[in-house]
Amino acid sequence: MFAGHVISGDVKNVHTVRTGIEYMTWLAEWYTKNAKKLRNGEGSIGFFQIGGGIAGDFPICVVPMLHQDLQRTGVPLWGYFAQISDSTTSYGSYSGAVPNEKITWGKLGSKTPKFIVESDATIVAPLIFSWVLGK
Asked: Domain for residue 27, yes or no?
């Protein structure tokens, strides 16, 4: 559909939607800057995943990329991991890997708090966000 709208001229710039690489580089810069601020104080950056599979698991890879590919030291792991998935997660499944599998990839630490809610995200996410935001 997107390509069709570019061809028809409804979408004027093919780069209106960023590529996955652009998102990953932006997230790496954001994470590095904000994690540095937190190292001097308290707190951490957590990862809240809605859904699973490649789209859900792609951004969590920013931390192992900073460690393994860029050899950056002092970059903290994610402070917590939470996921809402409408199907059961399992090793290598389309719904995403179980949190403990993420430890072996360097995404989470063994003591990182981990939570999975198996339910419909369109119902559960607004409830969680409302509670977190105190609404």
From this structure: yes
Q: Is residue 12 part of a domain?
A: no
The structure's pTM equals 0.76
- Does residue 128 fall inside a structural domain? yes
Q: What is the pLDDT of residues 82-125, one digit of tens each?
A: 888 876 666 555 556 677 788 888 889 999 999 888 888 899 99
Residues 35-62 have pLDDT tens digits of: 887 766 678 899 998 877 676 678 888 9
Domain annotation covers residue 1: no
**Residue-by-residue DSSP string for the chain:** -HHHHHHHTSSS-GGGSPPHHHHHHHHHHHHHHHHHHHHTSS----EEEES-HHHHHTGGGHHHIIIIIS--SSPPPPS-EEEEESS---TT-TT---HHHHHHTTSS-TTS-EEEEES-HHHHHHHHHHHHTT-
Domain enclosing residue 124, as ranges: 18-132
Number of domains in the chain: 1
